[in-house]
Give the backbone structure.
Amino acid sequence: MSTDRYISEFDQGNVRRNNCAKIDQYITVRENIRRWYTEFGFDFPHSSENNFRDSWFHYRKLYQERSAAEIIGQAATLDEHLQRAEKDSIIYLFQKISEALEFWYHAALNKEESRRGPDDLESGINSMYVHTANTPNRWVSLVQKKYSEDVFGFATCCTRIANRYILTYAFRIDVQNMIHELKNQVLEIRMGGAHIQRMSSPGDYYRKVKPCFERLVSFCSQYRIKELIIVSELIEWQTSVIEPSI
């Protein structure tokens, strides 16, 4: 015999309001994470947006169902889609940044002091880095502007400047620690999903990884590498200096 029951309009209204509040909370979280993407020049992932869209489908179902079992199921699925949306957006960003940092980590390992390049830079190109200390990431944009359609020249110049000013021994240590921290955050989020751990409210993952992201921004500022991260895939493709991932 079925133990299902119908709930009152009052109880159904409470369920709607509670889940509407969750969607509203996620919208704020989503905008905060989207700002992280904008800061690093990456596109927001479709998988995250698709899950956010699907959460609205299940929210609409809360207005159509009167069965307690169905309403509980729809609310649970709505929670799951919001959780996936938040997780996907963080994991994708941290993975993209980790991949870029790995490229420069290996470039630092493979750096040869005798390699032609750093000392024979044009003084004008050299000054693009030296004279933009007050706008730490602007140097990449200036190099890009100078080389215009010459993608190989742009990639080569960025690599030479990085070799001279950024890829130090201290950078190798710090970037390795940063990569490990980003990967650990991704692993913890993934493991939570594997154990079916639900967040108590939208924003739980965001609040957990925010200190890590803030350390990332500080690291990028210290080494003036944020714009370099944005164009790392292009430079990797042009220069082919990377070794297998750590």
